[in-house]
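Colleagues,

Please find the record for the two-part complex below.
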Amino acid sequence: MEHEPSPVTQPITRVGPPTVAFHPFPAVAPVAAAAPDPKVKGHRVPRFWIWALTLAVAATLALAGYLLATTNAWQHRAAELDRASKDLGSQLSAARADLQASKSQLDSVTAQLATAQTRITQLADEKAQLGDDREAQRSLADYQARATAAAAQVAAAMDKCIAGQQQYIGYLGNAAAYNPTELAQFGTDVAGYCQTATDANASLQQELRK
Amino acid sequence: MPTGFVPTDDATSTTSRGHLSPDGFDAARRIAVRIRNVGCNSLSTGSGFAIDATTLITNRHVVVNAAAIQISTYDGRDIAATAASTATLADLAIVRTATALPAFPDLADRDPVRGDAISVVGYPMGGELTITTGRVIDETTDPLHANLGEVLVTDAQVEPGSSGSAVLDSDGRVVGVVYAKNAANQSYVVPVSTLKKLLADTSSFSTAPACR
């Protein structure tokens, strides 16, 4: 340690053993500057720097150890993250595939629903139209039943009218045998009844023409 | 291992149920009913819509002079009518049903104004359930003198048989009732304010006259 160079602020001084001077020339008095400086007994590094350097080396070694351990830990974590990211990537890929399949199914179901709705609406309309037809037919049947009943009544009235007229004609053929006043009244009654029957028939015919 | 980077909240659904029912029909269709007026010597059809579980609204001229009122829903189910009442101051009628109607909407708080988008849901020509759209284009006094106060004019196309159709706003609320159309294919609508006013006064309705 004593041979370590001193700080640059110190003059450089050789401190090794003296060498034998060999000079081909006559000896001369040694140069005064070459003589050892009595003031410089040994260039010693301050203890402080020794300790500092020791501490620095120790700290460096500790830091290196720590960094090595940390690096190993990070490598381990990086490997885990890499595996996790690959796993997540696989899951994401599967999820995307599932999503795409679900979207396709949803589109298909949506189309089927729209078709079903359209068909339901059509069926509801067809049922309503059948209902309208049913009610129209029922109304027509009711009307025809009423017309038939009215026609039967008119026919019966006309028959009764004809019978009355025939009876009246018979009475007229033997008028002397009857009271003239009663005979005339009978004729009036028959005519009135026939007029009523004729009016009913006309009304029926008019109704049927509608 | 970090575990917090995976979001725990459920993803927001990209589909909305909206007004969909379990069978997929929207509320606008589910509130609509087809009304068949079986008269003594006539048969006619009209439209209507539910306002609660057993009450529906239609036009007066749809249910008067009936021997029987027959109601069917959007999916073809028959609903028995128990009574029909008509308003004297507007072309409106109330029909009560024996069983529950599929759905009923809210009545809007205010009448629509010129430019508002509307939808009409009903059975034009007694045919399929149909939704037509349009806008309110005017307000006027009733050209048929059947309604007190002003009525709305829209450009939504309607046909005979659409009478009694619900007029809905963009939120699906009832804003009026179709009762007539003109030669320019414009429809006339009783505004919801008139409907609510009459519904609030029970004396404004009387038993619908039946045919003889």
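Chain A is about 75% helix and 0% strand.

Comments are welcome before we finalize the supplementary table.
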